[in-house]
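Hey Z.,

So I finally got round to the zinc ion thing we talked about over coffee. Here's the setup:
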Amino acid sequence: MTNCQECNTPIPIEEEIPDIGAILVCPSCGAEHEVIATDPIELELIEEEK
Ligand SMILES: [Zn+2]
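And the result:
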C-alpha cells in the first residue's frame, strides 16, 4: 500500500502492478501521483500549477 504524499491517506491501487507513468489520484484530497517505480511501488507527487 502506498500513501498520499499530501495527506498520507492510503491510495488504493487497482492493478497489482501499475505501469510506470500511470497516474494515481488520492481519494481523499485529489492529489495526483505518478508511478515512478513498481518494485516496490514508488509514487511521486505531481505539483499542479494553479
Ligand atoms: Zn491526499
